[in-house]
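[agent] plan:
  1. take the single chain provided in the ticket
  2. run structure prediction with default settings
  3. attach structure tokens to the ticket
  4. add a short note for the reviewer (M.T.)
[agent] executing step 1
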Amino acid sequence: MIPDAARLIADALALRADAFLDTLELGRPGLRLGLMVVFLAGLSTAIGQSVTLFAHRVSPRRFAASLLVQALLFVVGFLAWVAATWVVGGTIFDRPRPVVLAFATVGLAHAPQLFGFFVLTPYFGTPIGTVLSVWTLLASVLATAAVFDLTLVEAATCAGLGWLASQLLQRTIGRPIIWIGRAVRRSVAGVDVRTRPLP
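[agent] step 2 finished; step 3 output follows
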């Protein structure tokens, strides 16, 4: 059982900085909460991007397995980005912190992506996806500020540099991992599934 999980998620959605400060104090339960939010956000996002699966009328078993794989890939992308941000915060900003704290707080910041399934909404899917991405970005800046004790401008810079570093890694040494992920996704779904990048 994670203490005050519902309250912390609601506060994160409301962009209250105290939610991320409170998560820091939870220790391991805070890490479990952050990773749980990211996994569920990945699952919701996968549902929102499942038009291809519906169009190809994949079997229920393949559909469920594909959603699970996409959710796990979402978590892997999240871990890579936060790890890069943690390195930036600890080196460039000279604020070394336990990496689990970054995973916990920035994971909670992905609470807006719990509404990712709304991207399936006809006509409004793309605007909703944009709103969720901006919402998640703002929450991630607050989370980064909390974990590294930075100003909002410093936190935005730290998160941005972490994102750039993770993108660079994905396009270099991370390419084989991306290919493997795509291959697994195609194999499980039985069709080529395109997903939007991690917000």
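[agent] step 4 note for reviewer: Residues 195-199 have pLDDT under 50 and may be disordered.
[agent] ticket updated
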